[in-house]
Amino acid sequence: MQQKVRVARLVDEPLSVDRVLAAIRDPAIGGIVVFIGAVRDHDRPAGTDPAGADDDTDAERAVTSLDYTAHPLALDRLQEVAGRAAAVDGVHAVAVEHRVGHLEVGDLAVVIAVGAAHRAEAFTGCRQLIDELKSGVPIWKEQTFIDGVSEWVGLP
Length: 156
Fold this sequence. Notes:
By secondary structure, the chain is an alpha+beta fold. It is built from 3 helices and 9 strands; from the N terminus they run E-H-E-E-E-H-E-E-E-H-E-E. A hairpin with a 4-residue loop joins strand 8 and strand 9. Helix 2 packs antiparallel against helix 3.
């Protein structure tokens, strides 16, 4: 029997949805949920109200690029959160890749695939994985805005 966490990697090359999907192929899997995170062309400055207060300081700003930096323990933490997602009842396989380094708008930052016999378990596992990745894996981004100002996001 194959292990449930098929891939949990940090990579400095373009991500491939096909590669991540291929890692979880299994005849027991009937439901596959994929999450793809891409670099968007805008963001709010750090520390602003995400609910969108009327204050001009909360206005979204154009993003030109970002750089992801991973703590030396990030891979271990990524493997741990992938393992917890794989432990969700009914999940058969999990694969996750997260980019590090310089990314342009539109580049893929993270690709996750979770396979289960049924869709409900696959959705649960995928949601758990991305939520725990965002909150507990020490990967930080420095985003650069169109005005040349940059800021770090996600620092402890």
